[in-house]
Design brief:
The protein is mainly beta. The chain is 8% helix and 43% strand. It has three domains: 45 residues, no CATH class; 151 residues, Immunoglobulin-like; 72 residues, Beta Barrel (Elongation Factor Tu (Ef-tu), domain 3). β17 and β18 form a beta hairpin. 26% of the residues are buried.
Length: 304
């Protein structure tokens, strides 16, 4: 303004209003802001220079299905404000990392057209339709010594931009916002759980010792039918003083099915107590896997 550059100032304001959160980038290794109608030397370097936080990787999940024993993970991944109108020249990379270990498993990534990438960006300056991907995850590659090994695996994507790989996990998109984990039976005693932890997609391989077969109303009680060796059902609820209370409800077994009757109060949580595990407060946790982000139960849903 003081230098009489009213035209450039107006151009910047108009551009920001028409393209909120979107801008063009110049430079291959040192990215900087570019505004149409404004000469490249008008903006000070400290203003035009872009940090890594200003050009992050955006990765979202749009679909996840099992096909022939392989998990197909579909979505899109692009660096913000870097248009991808068609198939990128440098492929997107993906790999699984086991938590608590340095073990990595590279995954096959197939590019695909995904118009939702542009739609979800809520801007009209850039086209991201070419940023779609399909990742094939074969659970068999996670086996150790021919057996399923309990563990948690994080999924990481990497897109090359401005001289470096921009890495991140996959966030919820069209699916994954409900907060519920999705499980898939690998065999009679093992399941695969797809879940979002801190808004990033993770996979767990975990044993299933008990399965919920069904439920019904028995008088004023809720009856749960369970499979497996179950000694009791640990139910927690809020007491009259608001404190968390845990009680073990007995389980009766008939014709290979265990049945537990829950009283007419709303439980906050429920998990099974198996033979060889301590009662609540005994210092040992029940030997059951976590069933999801909001459920400590080792009870698997019917069919998975």
């Amino acid at each position: 303004m003081a230098q009489g550059r009213w035209d450039e100032a107006v151009a910047i304001i108009v551009f920001e209003r028409e393209n909120p959160g979107a801008f063009r980038i110049r430079g291959l290794l040192s990215p900087s802001l570019e505004v149409p109608g404004v000469a490249s030397g008008v903006l000070p370097k400290e203003v035009a220079a872009l940090s890594d936080e200003e050009i992050p990787l955006v990765a979202r999940l749009t679909e996840m299905v099992w096909e022939g024993g392989v998990l197909r993970v579909r979505g899109y991944a692009h660096v913000r404000n870097v248009p991808v109108p068609e198939r990128p020249r440098i492929p997107t990379l993906a790999w699984l990392t086991r938590k608590g270990s340095r073990k990595r498993i590279p995954l096959r990534v197939t590019p695909r057209v995904e118009p939702l990438a542009t739609l979800h960006s809520k801007q009209a300056l850039h086209c991201y339709d070419g940023s779609g991907f399909e990742i094939s995850v074969d659970p068999g590659r996670l086996r150790s010594g021919g057996k399923w090994a309990k563990g948690t695996w994080s999924l990481t994507l990497a897109v090359w931009a401005f001289g470096k790989a921009r890495k991140d996990g996959i966030a919820p998109g069209d699916i994954g916002t409900s907060g519920h984990a999705h499980s898939h039976r690998l065999d009679e005693g093992t399941r695969w759980v797809s879940d979002f932890v801190k808004k990033r997609l993770e996979f767990r391989v975990e044993p299933v010792r008990t399965e919920l077969r069904g439920h019904s109303v028995n008088g004023d009680h809720l009856a749960l039918d369970l499979s497996g060796a179950v000694e009791g059902l640990v139910v927690s609820f809020k007491g009259e003083d608001g404190e968390q209370v845990e009680r073990v409800h007995p389980v009766s077994t008939e014709a290979g099915t265990a049945r537990a009757l829950l009283p007419p109060r709303r439980p906050v949580d429920a998990r099974c107590r198996h033979p060889g595990t301590a009662r609540p407060g005994g210092g040992r946790r029940p030997a059951t896997p976590r069933g999801g982000p909001r459920r400590r139960s080792g009870v698997g849903p019917p069919g998975g």
